[in-house]
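Before the break, one more example. Copy the sequence into your notebook; we will annotate it together after we see the structure.
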Amino acid sequence: MASISRLGQTEIQSNRTNVRTDGTASHRRRPLHVLFIHREADAVDACLQELEKAQFIVGADVVLTLAQCTKQLRLQSYDVVVAEYPSPSWKGSQALQLLQQTLQDIPLVFVTTAMGSKSLAELISCGAFDYVEQEHLAQLPMAIRRALNERGLRAELEAAGKALRHSQSLYRALADNPTYGICRCDAEGKFLDVNQALVTMLGYATGDELLVANRAFEVVLDLGQQAPLATRSREAIRIEPVEIEWNRKNRTVLKARLSGRGVYDEHGDFAGYEIIVVDVTEQRALEDHLRRQASSDSLTGLANHRRLFEVLHAEICRSKRTEREFSLLLLDLDALKEINDRFGHLTGDRALCRLAQVLTDCCRSIDTAARQGGDEFALVLPETGAAAATLVARRICGLLAKDTEEPALSVSVGVASYPKDADTVGTLLFAADRALYAMKDKQPRIARAGHA
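Here is what the structure looks like once it is written out:
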């Protein structure tokens, strides 16, 4: 353990020195202190390389077990902990909960092998902020940035909440902060006071205009706080951090994170709420965009290999519940290499996009078209038997044959159905692949379709 830790620390500290010496990039790079809980030095090195590519100045230590992790955390502080999963070092939810208690507020990101939804739910319930699959380590820097940003925002909100609870003067100071929207409303949800930040968030010109519009009521309803709160204790009237969608004046949607508390009059009777509002619209839009990028092919816009496996797994689970079959088409764009050699790679890329458009045109809303990579594509057809899937394959071939753009395109198609032809994701893909290449062997290179 010690040799791995010292090696990683020495190499990365050297990089830090080089960056600061030349004076050209240090202002753009962010220091990051990481504790790895991982048995494989190569996997740790791969993680460090991705973080370096993302312009982090990384200081790292490596431990092998939870006990070593606990000891190391007593010696040093870390920005984030990156742990392998699954690991023989801890088994079961109790060990994961112990890891969460050990880390306290340090963000935890898992580097995982392939795992099902049950395992993912277990990680989240036991305190994991995020996970990155081993084969997609390029996503690690973004996961760590999200963890650090979430940690910083949480600290700011906690500080803001303490200010509200302890002092009215601090509340007024916070109300003038341009980052946080602040409002006070009565027990029925009517605005009593708002700050300029909230006025701006909701798209109004002045605080008076917002007060007249009385938009707080819908927020109180959304939070489920319209019950007779006057009968509740002071300790019970808390608005835990929650995200809602709130309509602006122009009816566009503001995604907001709310927290706050109940307030009381001089007689100790419940009088309303003080609420802190943080605009997370752009943050959530960016996260949605990144999620779409992570599950889509950059050239064609179709689902990628990872998303295809997720859809197939979900369809198998649904088929087991409903006892209804579904089908998979595997498609191979014929002669892509010859197209690239004769017309150039731009034309080859265009050919792939042309096929992707045909697949999209043939899809229902419940279907999933995907590019596996290279010249290989797939189409998942829920609630569809082999005969209907073969008709879809022939329609795809027919649409390509009618395309007047040069060069002319054709595809080979293999059809497999679940559960008739296979009972797992792997065997279903193999059955469709076998049907595809059987048709390639039997027929000349023209538009064609075969069934497993």
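The chain has three domains: 2-150, 167-283, 297-451. The first strand starts at residue 30 and ends at 37. Try to locate both features in your own notes.
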